[in-house]
Every structure is written in C-alpha cells, then in structure tokens.
Specification:
Rossmann fold, 2 domains, five-stranded mixed β-sheet
C-alpha cells in the first residue's frame, strides 16, 4: 500500500501537525521524525541546508521500499520569509538529486527518478515567523500570564537587553501552556501534563482559525 509522508522541522511541529490532521480527519499522512531533534544545536537558530539534505537523503533510501507516493516538506518561514525558505528547500532538493523543476508554494511536482511527488509548505503567520507565531494567533483561552511577558520584554529593553521575536514567541507559548491553560492538578505532573505535546490535545487552540486555512488546504492535497 502506497504511503504519503510529511517531513517537518521540529518535534513541536510534529505534535502540532498530527493533532491538526486529526481535527480535519486527514489520516492518510505519516509525519516523519523531525529534521531537528531536541539536542540538535545546529537547528536552534533555524533550519540548515545540511540538516534538510541529510533528511532528504535518509528518505531517498526508503522511497521504493516503503512505496512512498507523496513526499511533503513543511518548514518555518522564520524572519527570512516564504520565498527565501522555499529557495532553501529547492536548493536541498536539487543537491540531493531529485530531477524536477523548482517547487512552488503548496504545489506538487513529480520526480521521475524516484517516482514520487514532492511539494512544500512554509509555515508562517502573515508571511513570517514560525509555529509559535501561528499558535499565538490561534490561542482561544485567556492568556493573562503569557501576555504579562510584554512588560518583561519592555523591562529588558530598559536594561539594554534584547530577546529575539523567535525566542519571545517560544517563551510566550510555554507560559500560556503551563500557567494559563494547565490546571492546578495537572501542574503536579507538569512535565507530562503541561508539556507542548499534552497541550496540543487540549481545547486551547482554535483549529478553525483562518490563519490555518492555507496549511489545511495543503494537507488535504495529499489525498486529492
């Protein structure tokens, strides 16, 4: 039986996409182990060409054996934006020997050499950012604890210190999950019940938010 495979950038991306797939009742996609593991320091400041090529090469060895029909790639836009990140993906695909024209956003192309269809989606909010930026936009619960980080950020600026928007958004999501949306009882087992993975299964995100429309459209093309 043929398989549809999706490559994602991080473990958190994997948790998020798997829960979104359940929400839209899309069960025909297997989400691969992420490109970057928790201990991959090379990926902390953004995805590298080397890491993406390594993952693609790893997948190449299993395409025929696993009868992979469609291979999708999702990476964050980060501050570089959609076009530049798409360029990185296309460079990796070309250098890994896939014989196809450059991919366009959410568009499938067939690779004759490996007999597989490839596509790419760039995760963003208004064209920039990453998963956490998107999650801030679709949160649906009170976020008083997390929102107070704005005052902390202002205080840092007054001390001549800065924190990147990427780091700030990740911290914001962590506080929202653990302090705004985790019950007193669950906090007794916070590492398990207040974790990113656990929070994805909680009703604290609006999976019907318009910000997810492009991503959901993309995921549905796997079975189109």
């Amino acid at each position: 039986m043929s398989k549809n495979v999706l490559i994602v950038e991080s473990q958190n991306d994997k948790f998020f996409i798997e829960n979104l797939l359940k929400h839209i009742n899309q069960i025909a996609i297997k989400v691969e182990n992420p490109i970057c593991s928790i201990d991959d320091y090379e990926c902390l400041e953004g995805l590298s060409l080397a890491k993406l090529k390594h993952k693609l090469t790893e997948i190449q060895t299993t395409i025929e054996k696993d009868d992979i029909q469609k291979l999708g790639i999702i990476v964050d836009a980060d501050k570089q934006g959609i076009d530049q990140r798409l360029g990185l993906v296309n460079q990796a695909i070309s250098e890994c020997g896939f014989d196809l024209a450059p991919l366009e956003f959410n568009h499938w192309l067939h690779c004759e050499k490996y007999d597989v269809d490839l596509s790419c989606h760039i995760l963003s909010y208004d064209g920039v950012g990453e998963l956490e930026t998107l999650l801030k936009a679709i949160k649906n619960q009170d976020s008083s604890f997390a929102d107070c980080l704005n005052a902390w950020q202002f205080c840092l600026a007054g001390q001549g210190k800065t924190i990147s928007s990427k780091e700030f958004d990740k911290f914001w999501i962590s506080i929202y999950q653990r302090y705004d949306c985790c019950s007193k009882e669950d906090k007794k087992q916070a590492n398990r019940k207040c974790s990113f993975e656990a929070s994805m299964a909680k009703p604290i995100w609006d999976f019907e938010h318009a910000a997810l429309n492009s991503l959901k459209d993309y995921l549905n093309t796997f079975t189109a």
